[in-house]
UniProtKB/TrEMBL annotation:
Organism: Rhipicephalus sanguineus (Brown dog tick)
Family matches, as Gene3D superfamilies: Aldehyde Dehydrogenase, Chain A, domain 1 (3.40.605.10)
UniProt-listed SUPFAM superfamilies: ALDH-like (SSF53720)
GO cellular component: cytoplasm
Family affiliation: Belongs to the aldehyde dehydrogenase family.
GO biological process: aldehyde metabolic process
Name the record gives this protein: Aldehyde dehydrogenase domain-containing protein
Stretches assigned to the Aldehyde dehydrogenase domain: 11-64
GO molecular function: aldehyde dehydrogenase (NAD+) activity
């Protein structure tokens, strides 16, 4: 039902790019920003988001562990 009302492009955008693309992108106003990655870049995103009072979710740091542990 939801898919018939909204296209995926209207709901969210996934952006992959380097520092130049990211800096340019963050000058735009968004409804919400979700970021997963480094603490350094997270701080930059947070600083840019506050200029437009954009709510953010930042999932920062951490390391990827094993995807599963299979025992005996």
């Amino acid at each position: 039902m939801i898919a018939s009302l909204f296209s995926m492009q209207e709901c969210f955008a996934v952006v992959v790019g380097g520092p130049k693309e990211s800096a340019e992108l963050l000058t735009e106003k968004f409804d919400y920003i979700f970021y997963t990655g480094s603490t350094h870049v997270g701080k930059l995103i947070y600083a840019a988001a506050q200029k437009h009072l954009t709510p953010v979710t930042l999932e920062l740091g951490g390391k990827s562990g094993p995807s599963a542990a299979i025992l005996g």
